[in-house]
Amino acid sequence: MNDTVDKLVIFLAKRDGIDKLVKTFQYVSKIAHWHAEAKNPEIAQRAKQWEVASGLSRKAFRTGRFLTGFNALRRSPGSTPTLRFLAVLANAGEMVYFFFDHFLWLSRIGTLNPNLARKMSFISAFGESFGYVFFIVLDFIALKEGVETEKKVAALEDKSAETKSESLRKIRADRVMRLMAVAANVADLIIGIADIEPNPFCNHAVTLGISGLVSAWSGWYRNWPS
């Protein structure tokens, strides 16, 4: 019990930890609003207020987050030119997303012209979706490489069973993290598409709610202290 509490404290001390918790509030309240809208308008309105407050607080808390993408752009991670190019595209999209998200937040709280909100939302969502496509591609490449590495390690005969077991454990742990990243990015891509090109599927409250929770809980798993 004490170990769990300690890990929770560490998790909530991180910017991403707080973000995933508030994101959970945001999308749970979205589903609650949809569920209560027809039968209990008062509860639905309270859920909607909770959703809006959570969404705005996440935007405020992410102030300056675009600098993370800028730093990643400078480093251009990747072992090959192709991977470096994909990483640049992915991080550039994320940087656009977080940068214009500042203006979206300011327009929604009335500091900037509220009429800018729709335009800022589109640009931010477009950058987000663009970046996530390339993050997903990078993760699939890494997953493929991980499978190939696992086969090579399993076939080695000049290493002890303990060494092989430890190597395989690390490869499989990385695979789980990559799969969590893919799940989160696909979910966020759906949310981004709902802003870019509204449609009945992506914009349905249940689709958005489930996507938001998948993204939040995948991120929760990835950021939880080991």
From TrEMBL:
<dbReference type="GO" id="GO:0042802">
    <property type="term" value="F:identical protein binding"/>
</dbReference>
<dbReference type="InterPro" id="IPR008733">
    <property type="entry name" value="PEX11"/>
</dbReference>
<keyword id="KW-0472">Membrane</keyword>
<feature type="transmembrane region" description="Helical">
    <location>
        <begin position="83"/>
        <end position="100"/>
    </location>
</feature>
<dbReference type="GO" id="GO:0005778">
    <property type="term" value="C:peroxisomal membrane"/>
</dbReference>
<comment type="similarity">
    <text>Belongs to the peroxin-11 family.</text>
</comment>
<protein>
    <recommendedName>
        <fullName>Peroxisomal membrane protein 11B</fullName>
    </recommendedName>
</protein>
<dbReference type="GO" id="GO:0016559">
    <property type="term" value="P:peroxisome fission"/>
</dbReference>
<feature type="transmembrane region" description="Helical">
    <location>
        <begin position="120"/>
        <end position="142"/>
    </location>
</feature>
<keyword id="KW-0576">Peroxisome</keyword>
<comment type="subunit">
    <text>Homooligomer. Interacts with ARC5 and FIS1B on peroxisomes.</text>
</comment>
<dbReference type="GO" id="GO:0044375">
    <property type="term" value="P:regulation of peroxisome size"/>
</dbReference>
<keyword id="KW-1133">Transmembrane helix</keyword>
<comment type="function">
    <text>Involved in peroxisomal proliferation. Promotes peroxisomal duplication, aggregation or elongation without fission.</text>
</comment>
<dbReference type="Pfam" id="PF05648">
    <property type="entry name" value="PEX11"/>
</dbReference>
<keyword id="KW-0812">Transmembrane</keyword>
<keyword id="KW-0962">Peroxisome biogenesis</keyword>
